[in-house]
Amino acid sequence: MPPKLSRFSIFSQPLDRAAFVAYFLGGVVPLVTLVLVIKRYAGAALLRPGLGGLILSLALLSLASFFVLQRTTRQSVGRAQRHSRRLASLVDASRSLAQTADRDGVVAIATRCAAALTGATAAYFLAFEKTRQGFSVLRSIGPEAEKLYSTHREEIDEMAALALPEDSEQQEAEIVHGEIATLSASAIGVGAGVRTQGALILVRQAAAEHDPAEVGTLTALARLVTVALGNSDLRSQQRNFFAHVTQLLVSTLDAHLDYQTDHSRRVAQLANRIGRAMRLPESQLRSLHFAALLHDIGMLRIDRDSLREGRTAVEKHPVIGFDMLRQIDLWRGIAPFVRHHHEHFDGNGYPDQLRGEAIPLESRMIAVAEAFDSMTSAHSYRAALPQSEALSRIRQASGKQFDPAVVEIFLDLAARGELDVNR
Questions:
Q1: Angle, alpha carbons 67-68-70 (nearest 5°)
Q2: 3-state secondary structure of 176
Q3: 25, 212, 222, 284: which is deepest, by most CB within 10 A?
């Protein structure tokens, strides 16, 4: 291992060594060569004290130029490295924002990235509340951030108001610089034209010149955040729209199947409880919820007379429901769960006779939830079974009709009294 060099050494960095080699070959070697040539061909008489002093001065001047070159090079490299780090942070923020669907996630990433880019000791994401014409703190970072905001709220809110986008057509983010107590502060507006409109506030310990590159980076971050907030609003509106459409379809299905009122809603509640007991992530729970609500949606395409004819007509509904849902982008992912909710764990179900874990997990959960609700609900053609009898039948069908792991969790929920749903 090479010896460590002191930070005061002129060779403390590889770039310093390269600069010294260039200086040595371009300055020292020619100077020494000149002295040797003079001594060889002009004789010692020419090497008078005055000429020697001149040569020494040239040598010192050459050495000084090396140190100037070294300092300039270090500053240039330092600026390039800072710019590279900012660019890397922006790329990471862009990637994270693109993968974040909810507003709170966007706000958290934006605040954290802005603090990292500027070295702020306190950072805030302030949202403008139109209903009360004021600001609320959605996110703060820093050990003293909350205390600072509580003591200087008016000043921070004023900076946010100055940075707030003036109208929905404004494309360029506004950056405002100022002071809060003895601290340097900056604010940049975000969210022009979207529901979540506000500002990022960054507070630093000491006042300093504002680096144009840093300002440009913050402006780019503000644009990324504005786009991410707009996408988050759009996703929220889509989820709200499809949630209401789903409820309308379920209500229509209940009217069509007048012997099973509220069956889909109860199945969704039971499936959700199984999913949470299995610690599924929220995104998977949402898919499970919609799949359970719509698991019988194919029944809408089967007329009532055909439903009374028996099993042959009814067995068509998983495939019909699959074909209905896969044509809609937001529901395409849950279409397979609907198709396979009548598959049996031993391969004797329908429509594709899938076996074991080849059946989607969500379908296996819906199968248990639907069977339990069907057995414990009163129908026009038979009375409801007692819960104990329904649980006994599910236990007996474990490994045959139902996934044993799902059955075990379901029975544990029953033992804890967590299967009761609103009827």
A1: 60
A2: strand
A3: 222
Residue 84 covered by a domain: no
User: Are 267 and 354 in a shared domain?
Assistant: yes
Alpha carbon distance 139, 105 (integer Å): 10
User: What is the span of the domain harbouring residue 18?
Assistant: 14-79
pTM here is 0.56
Q: Give the span between the Cα atoms of 136 and 128, in whole angstroms.
A: 7
Token readout for 118 is 């500027």
- pLDDT tens, position by position, 332-376: 999 999 999 999 999 999 999 999 999 999 999 999 999 999 999
Is residue 114 within 8 Å of residue 200, measured between CB atoms? yes
CA distance 186 to 385: 67
Q: Do both 206 and 133 map to the same domain?
A: yes
Residue 140 makes CB contacts below 8 A (sequence gap 6+) with 111, 122, 123, 124, 125, 146, 149
**Position 198 in a domain:** yes
Task: Answer yes or no: is 62 within a domain.
Answer: yes
